[in-house]
Design goal:
With 154 residues, the chain is mainly alpha-helical. It is built from six helices and two strands. It has a two-stranded antiparallel ribbon with strand order 1-2. A hairpin with a 4-residue loop joins strand 1 (91-95) and strand 2 (100-104).
Amino acid sequence: MFSFAFDGVEPFEIGLTRVKHMLNDLSPLWDIVEKELEALMHEEEANQGGVGGIGGWAPLAQSTIDRYGDHPILYLTGRMFESLMQETADTIYEPGPTMMVWGTSVEYAHFHQEGTDRMPARPIFDSEALHEALNRSLAKGARELEMLWTSGRK
């Protein structure tokens, strides 16, 4: 048997107003999302792109090794990944009430993501892994918001 008690419209309306407010301002979630994305970038770097469904980045061409030496893929200077794993001058993090913009302003990042006619794509952002990271962080954030909401009601 399923039953519940309802003590009037006012508490229900207050609850709905809180939920509406939370949905109109998702900014408390963005720090959680940003940390999850930074963790994903650490994992991508450590696994040379082997996170998610892409199966790892193409190896460096011999001409690249001859020119720059043998180094981890996508990590010649570290500038690009550092901007995605911690706050630097190249980090893009613009939280707002209903959306967040996150990424890097490093000018060559899109060449790695998409590839060129002379270089294979080595995606920094794997859509499958990114989707999973976003789902995890949003679920965690929703649980935290729910705890805040339920602890505030009397």
